[in-house]
Amino acid sequence: MADQSQESGFALSVSGKIGAGFAIVLVLHLSIVALGHYGLARAEADRAAQERLRTQVETLYQLDHAVGELQRNVLLYAFSGYRGPEHRVVELQDELGRLLKSVKSGPANAVVDPEVLTLMVSGLKTHREIFASVVTDRALRRTLVDEELAGLAEQLEQSLAAAAAPGEGEPFAAALSAFKSAQLKAMQFVHSPDSVRVHAVKQSVAECAAQLGRVTAAGADRDRMIALLAKYESAFLRMVQVTRGYLHLVNVVLAGEAEEFRRLAETVRSQCLSHADQLSMHMADQSSRFRQANNFISAMTIVLGVFASWLIGRNVASSLNAITATLVNLSKGVRCRHIPGIGRRDELGRMAAAAQVFKDKAEQTEILLAEVTRMKDLERRLAHAQKMESVGQLAAGIAHEINTPLQCVTNNIEYLRREMDAVLGASNPQHARASESEIPEAIDEASEAVQRVVEIVHAMRCMSHPGASELAPTDVNQTIENAVKISRNHWKEHAEVKLDLQAELPQPMAVSSELNQVVLNLVVNAADAIGEKRGERGPLGQITITTRAESRHVSIEVADSGAGIPAEVLPKVFDPFFTTKEIGVGSGQGLALAYNAVVNRLGGTLDVDSVEGQGAAFHIRIPLQSRDTHAVLDHEAVCI
């Protein structure tokens, strides 16, 4: 009574307590999962932001490097005038523009003072404008040097050289020497601008003018030379002014812009790094808080899990173990009079009621086993019935095949009787000689016809005669020839059969009549497929049967040129009772029984390749050594 009251006390609370306990544990577990996912998502977002900031910092370092490279190429262009550095300066300015655009569109835009980025963009624009002025001045300088100064120098040199003749030619020669000295110092200034060289050029020009002033008889030529010399000096001073102008732009203005650009880039980089450090500290703080929350919830989950386990063990486990032990005994056939837990009004009570039903149904197990045994026997009978069905289908054809040679035998015997009567009663020598040549032919035809009947009857006996069911070495080629002979009337109007049988083929362990049935089913199916394709007047198809010896198997291939098997049907051709033929034409068991005989009984393989409209090929592989050479098959058929 105490047990009954205890069971009644928990009758309505077992599933509730278990469900509530596990629900709480599940909620806590889901909380851990949700917290973990949230933490991972936040960490991933922060990591991505930090990675973007790191990329921006790298971009700023690239920007700083580009500024240095830009300044070097500006100086190189200023002192060399080559087009390569000029193009490189433009490329670096464009690269700086792209880098600034990347910084403005990246996360740094939310971190950096926008006025700094605006100043950097404005500085780059100013740098472009100033460098354009440098390019213009550098071009003007080149024009002055290569065209104006060179032209004036050439005219003055030619005039001085022509005037340097004996007599008063000495001042012209001295003037020419002084002018060449001026030219040399001017070229030195071109390659290395220096105010000392400017004064040296002016002194050489003044000395040249002084020498020309000593000439008294030259007249107009001397005045023209002095004028050319003045123009040369003026052009040189303009070139000096242009050179000083663009060098000032390069060395002072552009250098200052570059330094300012670097300073602004350093400011942006410092702000990004500071923000990245703050983000790292925030990530560490978030990780610590998530870890603490996760540890707390995990601890709560463990505590509640232990409590739920204790509650289940105290209120459920004992009764459940008793009911389980009873079910195990019932499954082993041990009879019991009482099912524990009967009378409970909870889930365990329903389980006990189910055990009672199991106990009540235990007796029916023996009946089911007997039914299974009967079904196995029915399966064996079904296989034999299918074989007899094949025999029945071929019976009319076989009778026709036997009738034809028997009719030949009858006709030849009648002919022999008439001829023998004629020979014995006739006195015509010519008739006797004709009979002597035709009678042996008739005897040979009759003998061949009788042999054909014997072969057909022998093949029929091999297929239908019940015998031993043990595996035995089987002549595969002979089995195939028997199946072809039996089925000849079925295929002769639709196809030609070509046998490609390997001589001295090894004999695998099998039952010849069962293998004969397999080949017969495949040949009949091939003939039906060819007949379906060719209709009534189409050309004859071809059935090719090939045997080959492999390393550990004997392979058989039955290929036909029939209608083929549709792709959607191909996976089901070996299913029992599956057929594409009309009702009453096929039972759908031939290929299923063939598959069972080859795969399940002999441990071989049976598969099919087919292209719809082009025919099909069935491949059989039989192992030379059976899985159990002493196994006894549960099917009767052997050739005797």
UniProtKB/TrEMBL annotation:
The keyword Nucleus does not apply. GO terms for molecular function: ATP binding; phosphorelay sensor kinase activity. It comes from the Bacteria. It is found in: Membrane. Pfam families: HATPase_c. It catalyses: ATP + protein L-histidine = ADP + protein N-phospho-L-histidine. GO terms for cellular component: membrane. This is histidine kinase. Its EC number is 2.7.13.3. Keywords: ATP-binding, Kinase, Membrane, Nucleotide-binding, Phosphoprotein, Transferase, Transmembrane, Transmembrane helix, Two-component regulatory system. CDD domains: HisKA. It comes from Posidoniimonas corsicana. Signal peptide: none annotated. The chain crosses the membrane at residues 20-40, 293-312. Residues 314-367 form the HAMP domain. The keyword Glycoprotein does not apply. InterPro entries: HAMP_dom, HATPase_C_sf, HATPase_dom, HBM, His_kinase_dom, HisK_dim/P_dom, HisK_dim/P_sf, Sig_transdc_His_kin-like_C. Residues 397-626 form the Histidine kinase domain.
